[in-house]
Fold this sequence. Notes:
single chain, mainly alpha, about 0% strand, globular
Amino acid sequence: MMFSGVIPWDGLPVWMYHAQEPPPSHKYDPTLAGITWVDLVFPFFLFSLGAAIPLALKKRIKHGTPMWQLVLGAFGRGLSLVAFAIYDQHVRPYSLASNPTTVTWQLALLGFAIAIPIWAALPREWPQWTKVLIRGVGVAAAVGFLAKATYADGSGFSKDRNDIILLVLSWMATFGTLVWLATRTSITARLAVIAGILAWRIGATVEGSEAALWFWVDPFPWLGRPEFLHYLLIVLPGTIVGELLIGPKPDAQEMEPQPWHIWRHYALLAVAIAAIPISLVTLHGRYSLLWLIPIYTALLIVFQPTTDDDRQVAQITRFSVFWITIGTLLEPFEGGIKKDPLTLSYCFLAAGLAGLLLAGILAVSRRWKWVPFATVGQNPMFAYLAITNLVAPLWTLMVVPAMANATTGTLADVAVAVGKTLALAGFTALAVRLHLSLRS
């Protein structure tokens, strides 16, 4: 996510930018069909959010947490993310000033520090009054910051100044959780919900009551709008994968359990990785059905699993290929696959690609007994805020002066983007090791 946002503005191939905002002008053109790898970043994040819902909540249900607490928790988490969306947008350096100065970067760092006592996951063993005091100090500092700050357009605080990505995540965290709670005992019921959202979304393409409700702007637009629900078509497939990861596992077959030969694990990962560029190229050329041929090789790789781990990988692979097929068949609808305006083919295809990549990574990482960059994924809110309010300020204040006489150019700028991305990964991983995680 960070790398796609800090690469050079120009000088790179078209596929290094959003498909509907091609270089050199980056002018938005909704008629352009196709997607790039940059367009897959956000849906992969949404898919991961969906997979995390059952992983987190099944433990709470097992420990006897009442359903009403889980429902209230879903709404509370959503409102916390709305607050985070508003706060994040108000403390970003380029929100504070069009041309940030040293003071601007310092204020951005202050904004990052203030967020810690508000959203940090505090130890359970701490007394409740201590937690309330820490949260209160953070909220008071945030109120003071937002009340005093002025922004690039000369205005002050506005609840309508928010991060749209985080606002969408707030809806997905809330309604994804509610749908999972309602359908947690039946994947069939969840598939019915997906079909219902799909039907509503198609009905909203023509004038009528469905469209009026879908595009309804409520009296509080800063809270979001119903059309965000189409992202559930990515999140809910993720919840199915999350359940497959934790069981109940399929019954063992009556044979000595022997895992797949390691070549099958690596072959699955290779197909999963190759599926991304193959899909991007073929869908850009509108050769949608042809690209399914190499994708179906994944089904041949995962035949006859015998161990529990391999069965999980096989199930995830089959579900993923199913979603990829649905997304591909929908590609001609709405003028081709697009991230913006969002098309149905984009939602299903992205969910399938994310699931297939996860299956490949699981197959290989279980052999390694190690998952690369796992600690980064365990602290997403910290990482998201750190992109603009930790890495960017520190890079500008500490690294850029030392590079003042360095040679610049497209390759050098790409190297800088890689450096910033690795710095973000390092800061986030370190925060996890120090038990400093932000939670909604």
